[in-house]
Amino acid sequence: MNRPHRPDPGASSASTYPVGFDLKSYLKAKSEKVNNALRAQLDAVAVPGRLLEAMRHSLLAGGKRLRPVLCLAAAESAGKADEVAMPAACALEMIHTYSLIHDDLPAMDDDDLRRGIPTCHRAFDEATAILAGDGLLTGAFEILAGSALHEPEKRNEWVQVIHLVSRAAGAAGMIEGQMQDMQAEGTPLSVDALATLHQLKTGAVIEAAVHCGALLGGAGNRQLNDLRRYARRIGLAFQVVDDILNVEGDPVRMGKSVGTDREKRKSTYPEVLGVSASRNFAQQLVGEALKAIQDFDNRSDPLRAIAVYIVRRNR
Amino acid sequence: MNRPHRPDPGASSASTYPVGFDLKSYLKAKSEKVNNALRAQLDAVAVPGRLLEAMRHSLLAGGKRLRPVLCLAAAESAGKADEVAMPAACALEMIHTYSLIHDDLPAMDDDDLRRGIPTCHRAFDEATAILAGDGLLTGAFEILAGSALHEPEKRNEWVQVIHLVSRAAGAAGMIEGQMQDMQAEGTPLSVDALATLHQLKTGAVIEAAVHCGALLGGAGNRQLNDLRRYARRIGLAFQVVDDILNVEGDPVRMGKSVGTDREKRKSTYPEVLGVSASRNFAQQLVGEALKAIQDFDNRSDPLRAIAVYIVRRNR
To answer: What is the pTM of this model?
Structure first.
């Protein structure tokens, strides 16, 4: 794993893929670390009882842990151990999980299954699910603020992290994206409108995950910009593949319902572009993501492997 | 208004009340300032559209503005102009409003009227109300983080503010209080259990409001502790009076439904202690609050007048 990365300005995605890199082991190891940290953080921000049980039900149900892993991988890419970014990684996963809990509510997407188990309001009740989501969102900021408080030498970076996470997850980011998604049901969208919607709904937080990790890892401005470009491309690629899997995926492997986009008459990439062109588009985005970080050394191999995984995944 | 405050260890609430102080004008002036600041902050954290409209509907519907006014008054008490604490005051009111929006939802208290106008889910719809609450909560942290980012000379104080607000509003504070409140429906509580419940549900954020204002106003440790003791007493007094008004209040003047506690078989102070003893208890708490800040000079007169107002109010 000490293979030096050879920059190649005209590199195709194939030539920049880190061939010897074992992503499966990497994801397994990082997910376990993240899950352990999440368990500890959860106990620090909540008190024993039904609320904590509901938060735990949804937060510790597994999931791909894409956002925290990206955050840790970005810190490593900038040259630091993943520990520096772990509180941010946890906060991002808590925010992602809260958004799933609220989106799954009967008043929103009314889903019964998430991450292979009953959604929070099915396992508990609606009121508890609303509060569990609120608790995860607020707890995320408590964790970030706690890091800012207890790491004075990194306080400036943590303040930037709190600001960019709140911005990305807020009413000019993820929440606005969810609102526009609901409003667009039944209205055909153009490819550009669809990209804008997804940049808000999922792209902003994925970009924030990489941005936070890079900041905490000590990346310079040039590196930050490259990593953010990488993140924007894989964020959109992720969503394009999500749309494809919603048409073609296996609900058992996915751990959630499929075919729901069509039922709700949501505009999707397969619908607007067709399945085959959607696949090509996702592939192109991943190529651009790999190109954005082509000058980085082999400490960015996890980010490269994740980019490629995003289009190859089946859940 | 330059009357020196004479410390009197045995002071009764009557003798420490700032007789010449015009609370009505003070509250009017502060509320207007808060409302103007809230309008500007809201436009900074959200983009035009239905989500922003829903956030605005609930946030700018009036209300007593108790938390922001306490925050500003605490900053003044510590010797600073209220401007230093305005972003914290706004964040606290946004958090209070988000909690009302979510508590009013059909799955929770199912209320139709709030601050004299339809609740958010009545004026818009449930999904929009859930998202509007989420947006206000996330926006509150964006505002606090923005202050931390843009005021480097006060960054340490802002980081403390973010931490204590998230803690007070989170799953070991306000949200846990709401959870326990729902779980306790139909179960008679002792006076102590009732006090614990209210300390979580409303007390923690009221204490945070005073604490934040005092911190940003530059209060020392001794002064901070006194102000927090003041805040805990008036926080509980406020809730005792709320319970009394839920039995005896006028729904038109209150701007919300009354008699709802009995309908939901919630334990309340009038039920546990009787109305008359509840009034005495609130009066005693206010006396203790005034005593906690008896050594402070006349810059604390607004806090004194607010304490007395809390038991005399009729909405």
So the answer is: 0.93
CATH of range B21-312; options 3.40.930.10, 3.30.70.3270, 3.40.50.150, 1.10.600.10: 1.10.600.10
Amino acid at B24: K
> So where are chain A's domains?
20-312
Is the Cβ of A176 closer than 8 Å to some Cβ of chain B? Answer: yes
Asked whether B311 and B286 are in contact (CB, 8 A), the reply is yes
Q: For an interface test with B, give the residue of A157, A179, A200 to mutate (most B CBs within 10 A).
A: A179
3-class SS string, B139-153: HHHHHHHHHHHHCHH
ipTM given for this complex: 0.93
Residue carrying structure tokens 């490259």: A226
| Cβ-based neighbours of B256, under 8 Å, separated by 6 or more | B111, B113, B114, B115, B116
**From the candidates B42, B55, B150, B162, which should be mutated to test the interface with A, based on the most A CB atoms within 10 A?**
B162
pLDDT tens for residues A219-261? Answer: 999 999 999 999 999 999 999 999 999 887 666 666 777 677 7
- Based on its alpha-carbon atoms, the radius of gyration of chain B, rounded to whole angstroms, reads 19
Q: CA-to-CA distance for A67 and B301, rounded, in angstroms?
A: 50
Please tell me which of the candidates B51, B130, B180 has its beta carbon nearest to residue A171: B51
pLDDT (tens digit per residue) in A167-190: 999 999 999 999 999 999 888 899
pLDDT at A49 over 90: yes
Of B128, B137, B159, the CB nearest to A134: B137
- The span from the CA of B100 to the CA of B58, in Å, is 9
**Do residues B224 and B212 lie in contact, with contact meaning Cβ atoms separated by under 8 Å?**
no
Q: How far is B238 from chain A (nearest CA, A)?
A: 23
Under the banding of pLDDT at 50, 70 and 90, the label for residue B7 is very low
Q: How many CA atoms lie within 13 A of A156 on its CB side?
A: 8
Tell whether the model's pLDDT for residue B115 goes beyond 80: yes
Q: Is the pLDDT of residue B315 over 90?
A: no
For residues A160 and B149, the answer to whether their CB atoms sit within 8 Å is yes
- A166 at interface of B, judged by CB pairs closer than 8 A: yes
Q: CATH number of the domain at A20-312, please?
A: 1.10.600.10
Residues A52 and A55: their CA atoms lie apart, in Å, by 5
